[in-house]
Amino acid sequence: MSTPGRQKQGTIGLPVSGDALSDRAQSATGRKHHIVWRPKLHPPALLAGVCVVLVGPKKPISCGTVARACSCFECEDVRVVQPRCDHNTRSSRSVSKGAQYILWRAQVHDKLADALGDVDLSVAFTRWLPGQQHPALPDIPSLLAHPVVQQVLAQPQHLNQQQQQQQRQPDLQNLKQQEEEQVRRQVQQGEQQQQQRQQQQDAGQQQERRPVRIALVFGREEFGLSDDEVAACGTACAISIGRLQESLSLSHATSIVLSQLYQARLSALAAASGMAPAALPYSAGSVDELANGYDSSSGIEH
């Protein structure tokens, strides 16, 4: 079961969607104020097919820094499982800067399985597995090469209204041809066989229309994911680090993975369009080119 981000008395909740703007919302203290920024990207967020799942976070600041990392790479879907803190506090919002809206609309789940219910692949990030086994995906390049991740990276990003209208015309012609063919098949093969074929076709079309989604699952600040939580995910991946540290912080780990996914997604869209990655509308050359509504004080409490 999921619930929207917690909302304390005296705060103003943030809708899931809306035009980019800056609002002053009263904080939980009733005295402080913070800037709430609600972006609306055109085209949509580059990593819309990726969600970040935090299992058992202990510190609000960890949630805030992860939200900021997600916003840096246009990943707007954060889910929290069995949190040991309030992920949406003054401290978490302050460190999130312009990503406060991600904290406001983050889903909270009681079970990891609930957070992963709508994804095609869940990836547990861990350095070690029981029995000194290595994760199935030993590094980020192996993650990028996973077939499901490749689908996320390559799936079409956005169709504007004109392209959608252009697509509808041949779709109507194809639909008419399909209907005529269905009638002929019903006469030749019987109504029951044809119904079975149609059901299979509808199921295939529905699966094709649904965007592919992956979940990046990160564990607790102190000891990461449990063995059972790793086993509950579709696969496990390690982030290559040296011998002087046991692990990365949550925000650093999230940033490393999302950065690689962002770059790979950008390269895939560039290759599909025949354009250079820098020519695509997903990067900002200056503050003026950031998403509409952003300013330097976004997310800072005053």
Task: Give the CATH topology of the domain at 47-156 and 209-241 and 250-271.
Answer: Alpha/beta knot
H/E series? EEEEHEHHEHEHHHHEHEH
Number of helices: 10
End-to-end Cα distance, whole Å, is 35 Å
- CATH top level class name of the domain at 47-156 and 209-241 and 250-271: Alpha Beta
Mean pLDDT across residues: 78
Radius of gyration: 22 Å
User: What is the share of helical residues?
Assistant: 40-55%
Task: Show unreliable segments.
Answer: 5-35, 159-172, 295-302
CATH-scheme architecture of the domain at 47-156 and 209-241 and 250-271:
3-Layer(aba) Sandwich
Choose one word for the global shape: globular
Q: Can you list the strand order of the major beta sheet?
A: 1-6-5-4-8-7-9
Description:
- With 302 residues, the chain is of the alpha/beta class.
- The chain has a domain at 47-156 and 209-241 and 250-271: SPOUT methyltransferase, trefoil knot domain (Alpha/beta knot).
- Helices cover 40% and strands 13% of the residues.
- The chain has helices at 60-72, 90-96, 100-105, 112-115, 140-144, 147-154, 161-189, 191-209, 227-232, 250-273; strands at residues 2-3, 22-26, 33-37, 50-55, 77-81, 107-109, 121-125, 214-218, 235-237.
- The protein has a 7-stranded mixed sheet. Strands 2-3 form a two-stranded antiparallel sheet.
- Helix 1 packs parallel to helix 10 and helix 7 (161-189) packs antiparallel against helix 8 (191-209).
- It is globular.
